[in-house]
Amino acid sequence: MTRQVLRLAAYGLCIVDGRMLLARYVSPDGTQRHWTLPGGKVEHGEDPFDAVVREVAEETGYAVEVERLLGIDSRNHHADWLGPFGGELHSVGVFYAVTIIGGSLRNERGGSTDLAAWIPATEVEQLERTVVIDIARNMYRNRPATGHVEPVAVGGLLRH
């Protein structure tokens, strides 16, 4: 039987002076690193609104407030890591625009990221990155009234 997993995550898009706040994901075995938005898994019983505030603080050191909901992305794909035969992963991402209200930039210790940085928006395209960055940028640019945009092509980008 194929394993089916639902993953709910919340992400914060923060843009200041043409720079985007990003965090560098590190795989559990330390062999993979790529850029992503600050954010991650919504814990059981946690509201995604609260999860994004917690995740941004954990991964970047900044206290943030949510400005607005950008939208929700839902995608399915096969994940080899879901058991001996892999499985089907249904990822639901809740994307928010966030504003810094306190704290200072620092790297996460002992978590899923190892580096937090402000990256010029003009340089993001050249980064090895997860698709969540492109999804959030698309939502931010288009500001869909329904919160739904056409799926962003994964192509050569990493999934997260």
UniProtKB/TrEMBL annotation:
Listed PROSITE patterns: NUDIX, NUDIX_BOX
Entries under InterPro entries matching the protein: Nudix_hydrolase, NUDIX_hydrolase-like_dom_sf, NUDIX_hydrolase_CS, NUDIX_hydrolase_dom
Keywords assigned by UniProt, alphabetized: Hydrolase
Annotated ranges, domain Nudix hydrolase: 5-141
Record field: transmembrane: none
Cofactor(s) it depends on: Mg(2+)
One Gene Ontology molecular-function label: hydrolase activity
Domain of life: Bacteria
Family per record: Belongs to the Nudix hydrolase family.
Protein's UniProt name: Nudix hydrolase domain-containing protein
Organism: Dactylosporangium matsuzakiense
